[in-house]
Write a structure and sequence with these properties.
Elements (H helix, E strand, L loop, with lengths): L3 E7 L2 E11 L4 E10 L23 E3 L4 H14 L3 E6 L4 E7 L6 E11 L8 E11 L8 E3 L3 H16 L5
Antiparallel strand pairs: 1-2, 2-3, 4-8, 5-6, 6-7, 7-8, 8-9
Length: 172
């Protein structure tokens, strides 16, 4: 028989108890070994490795307009029709943060960070649109919501229609 381990959390301390069956050396049926860990904070958290290179994000689309505020207004209307609410909009920075209470299967929310940039050499030729998407959920052991890793397929499923509608905006 293999040893069996049990974890107990008692008053903020973690107790690990292992039962070893048939200890013939001491004529006992079972041997118990107990380890006490002072606090949960002393446990090492296993981090998920992010293999993506650290670099500027690629733009999503180039709009052939020079009217940034009108473009941002149009994008805001599209995003709001999909259940998002504006959390913060900065017209000087041409940036907008929006949030949607998640319709996902668990408690959480989604955020989009969207910003516009002009080409410094030819600012009247168009505006680059950038978009970052995140899903935040409650995770066991964390008090606040944390951003979880989202697959490209999930992002397309959740906001793919928003991206398509943004690409269809035509401002003259």
């Amino acid at each position: 028989m293999k040893p069996t381990s049990f974890l107990f959390l008692i008053s903020g301390s973690l107790i690990c108890s292992t039962v070893f069956p048939q200890d013939n050396r001491h004529n006992r049926n079972h041997t118990y070994v107990t380890h006490h860990i002072d606090s949960i904070q002393s446990l090492e958290v296993i981090e998920e490795i992010d293999s993506r290179p650290l670099e500027r994000p690629s733009f999503m689309f180039i709009s052939k307009t020079s009217k940034g505020n009108l473009l941002l207004d149009s994008i805001e209307r599209i995003i709001m029709t999909k259940g998002f609410e504006v959390e913060n909009r900065d017209d000087d920075m041409q940036e907008m943060r929006v949030i949607r209470k998640s319709y996902l299967e668990v408690d959480g929310y989604e955020k989009i960070l969207l910003w516009l940039e002009r080409d410094f050499k030819t600012p009247d030729q168009g505006i680059k649109i950038y978009l970052n998407y995140g899903v935040y959920k409650k995770i066991f052991g964390k008090r606040e919501y944390v951003r979880i890793k989202v697959t490209p397929e999930t992002e397309i499923e959740n906001i793919g229609d928003i991206k398509k509608l943004i690409q269809k905006i035509n401002i003259n």
